[in-house]
Amino acid sequence: MAAGVAAWLPFARAAAIGWMPVANCPMPLAPTEKNKRQDELIILNVSGRRFQTWRTTLERYPDTLLGSTEKEFFFNEDTKEYFFDRDPEVFRCILNFYRTGKLHYPRYECISAYDEELAFYGILPEIIGDCCYEEYKDRKRENAERLMDDNDSENNQEGSMPSLSFRQTMWRAFENPHTSTLALVFYYVTGFFIAVSVITNVVETVPCGTVPGNKELPCGERYAVAFFCLDTACVMIFTVEYLLRLFAAPSRYRFIRSVMSIIDVVAIMPYYIGLVMTNNEDVSGAFVTLRVFRVFRIFKFSRHSQGLRILGYTLKSCASELGFLLFSLTMAIIIFATVMFYAEKGSSASKFTSIPASFWYTIVTMTTLGYGDMVPKTIAGKIFGSICSLSGVLVIALPVPVIVSNFSRIYHQNQRADKRRAQKKARLARIRVAKTGSSNAYLHSKRNGLLNEALELTGSTEDEQHTTKGTSLIESQHHHLLHCLEKTTNHEFIDEQLFEQNCMESSMQNYPSSRSPSLSSHHGLTTSCCSRRNKKTTHLPNSSVPATRLRSMQELSTIHIQCSEQPSLTTSRSSLNMKSDDGLRPNCKAAQITTAIISIPTPPALTPEGESRPPPSSPGHSTNISTTTTSNIVKVSAL
Amino acid sequence: MEGMELCAVAVVILLFIAVLKQFGILEPISVEDTCDGDVELSAARHQPEGLEELQAHTKFTKKELQSLYRGFKNDCPSGHVDEETFTLIYAQFFPQGDSSAYAHFLFNAFDADGSGALCFEDFVVGLSVLLRGTAQEKLKWAFNLYDINKDGCITKEEMLEIMKSIYDMMGRCTLPAPRDSAPAEHVEQFFQKMDRNGDGVVTYEEFLETCQQDADIMSSMQIFENTI
């Protein structure tokens, strides 16, 4: 029931008394209204702007947020008002909907912002009033197209999916020549051959030189063999291309039906038909006609030109306007041809011998060509002829702007799509920077945090502790969250550069040489999140040990933080980060991994990270640095 | 050909006239009545009586009147409800059937001064009777509704029309299936009950007496008391 008539319900109920005397049986009891309260004003505070309305106004639509008890969640006890932290401008429209029953869409509002607000307040967009519905739908469609465009281009530019079969790669190469060099080469080669073929066809007919007998001979007949070879070569290339495309197409049936493939076929069929038919002299006439179809090869250029495709698409989309143009022209031609015929009937030696013969005059005049091979001689003929030419201008001028505007719209849409793609790259780059910024912040804070802890332990100056105080509460909570993730998965976040370095280095040594036996025994060991004392003992590989992929730990009193500037000093963590070598390499290949290496602080009691305590070392201030050129590579989920 | 030349000359003259029209030379010839294009003034706005007067005429409190007026004015900003709008609004409550006939009768019943449009006073006075009036007043109102020509007595034809309009509101999809004879039968029942002296019409006194003696009717008159 519409909201507006809810106000009339009491009236309708009261009027029901008119049925009472007529009824033969008692009426059911009326529902009683519990908590019948007087209508009161409620205050809706939307981002500081106060709106007031009657409670019953809002209750007209009980399935929305404001009309149901859901708004109680937003009730502010202190100020006795309902507070919404949303856009007050859009709220105006929403409140008007309750008041008037019509939802309007303000034109200046962004469509997605508006949609979000509607979704928040639980209002379906379908009830937008007629006055604004069209605009809303148009904007929504544009937005959807934009999103689709984005998604399409995103999909096209997705990183190489390793699972593409050969056939799919080939198809992609055909469709987007820029994906690989081979595709580009193929693209240019076919383009070249199309051009060669077209030029051949053209030059073939040019007269070049005479034969004894004073007959002009076209080049095609003079150098028949050469032209034939050229033609054969082109057709070979085209055939091969067509067959390759056919092979690579994901849906062969659809490909065969597509326009481009039809053009391809039409372009190369004449040659083969000609081959077959050369023996038969009777059909040489037809053979000559077939050669005309060779000109269709020029349409193959549309694969190479975006503009041509747009033109074709425009003409297709303006089909109705073109049809109208054709229809009106035909009507006018017939009318004027008839009139001219009868007007010129009297004059002697008139060229207007019949009405169809006058068609030619009418067409030439209406399109303002005016060849002059047929001209009216009588006065009536001249008068009607001038009217004909004037009206011709009008009839042609009317549909043309429509076609032009269509073309312009489609062309600009295309340009906008390209612009969006370019902007998107910049946007994505910025987003990536922001992401790495946040991950770097985490790593940085971790280092500082550990540094501070170590410093605390060592009792050194506490001034450095202040460095970490700068992070806000949210940041510290975020970092804590990432830290918990690390603990859960027993992996650590690492810097991207570092990771790649380690990747490269580890790929150089393929075998775990000179691994201390104790280490190898700890291969599969993982420490629990908060274990402080692990039983594994690991020896420090000293610098004499060549690069291995050991986990080494050392006891550090001070923390050596792995920086990318010192690749040689990669200190590795404990076996917490043990990873097998084979697991290592695929990880290297994956692009999106950021890992973190953190060196271990000495006293296990103080640091939650599991580390090992090298037996010989004393928890002192000695620093043993293991130098391994490779460090443990930790594979963590991409940040 | 002579004929064609004549035609050509005629066409030329026509075109000439068309061109001259542009210059406004031929204005006096084409006199059109362009004055009454936008005379149609919107219907005058109606202002209701003051709040105090309405309070005096009806049994509603001030707050109730305020609330009623707000709803009324929201739906009819001009202050009037004409019959068409009224029918439309009433039809919203009975989506299955056709309530236009009954709405017509209702409209006439509410429109006490016969002005053709319901104003707020009519609305509120009618509601006051129906919701806050005595049983007798309500019965009088109902009698008034049934008495289409307002001659003081209900004939069988009038009752039949009312009955048919009520049954129309039910629509086609009812259980038991609608029968064409149902209204007539119901009218017969009604007359048997109400028509004391059997003269074929029901007068107000007969109506009042019968209803007051029927406990069902009296109790069902009360059920809408707390509507507002």
UniProtKB/TrEMBL annotation, chain A:
GO molecular function: A-type (transient outward) potassium channel activity; metal ion binding
Residue stretches making up the BTB domain: 40-139
Topology with respect to the bilayer: Multi-pass membrane protein
Transmembrane parts of this sequence: 182-203, 223-244, 256-277, 322-343, 355-371, 383-404
Keywords: Cell membrane, Cell projection, Ion channel, Ion transport, Membrane, Metal-binding, Phosphoprotein, Potassium, Potassium channel, Potassium transport, Signal, Transmembrane, Transmembrane helix, Transport, Voltage-gated channel, Zinc
Coiled-coil segments: none
Biased composition (Low complexity): 512-521, 619-633
Biological process annotations from GO: action potential; potassium ion export across plasma membrane; protein homooligomerization
Principal subcellular localization: membrane
Organism: Phasianus colchicus
Subcellular location: Cell membrane; Cell projection, Dendrite
Residues making up the signal peptide according to the UniProt record: 1-16
Catalytic activity from the UniProt record: K(+)(in) = K(+)(out)
Annotated region described as Disordered, given as residue ranges: 509-544, 601-639
Name of the protein this chain belongs to: Potassium voltage-gated channel subfamily D member 3
An example Gene Ontology CC term for this record: dendritic spine
From TrEMBL, chain B:
A single MF term (Gene Ontology): RNA polymerase II cis-regulatory region sequence-specific DNA binding
CDD domains in alphabetical order: EFh
Segments forming a coiled coil: none
Pfam families found in the cross-reference section: EF-hand_7 (PF13499), EF-hand_8 (PF13833)
One Gene Ontology cellular component: voltage-gated potassium channel complex
Keywords: Calcium, Lipoprotein, Metal-binding, Myristate, Repeat, Signal
Domain of life: Eukaryota
PROSITE patterns, sorted: EF_HAND_1 (PS00018), EF_HAND_2 (PS50222)
GO BP annotations listed: regulation of potassium ion transmembrane transport
InterPro entries noted in UniProt: EF-hand-dom_pair, EF_Hand_1_Ca_BS, EF_hand_dom, Recoverin
Protein name: Potassium voltage-gated channel interacting protein 3
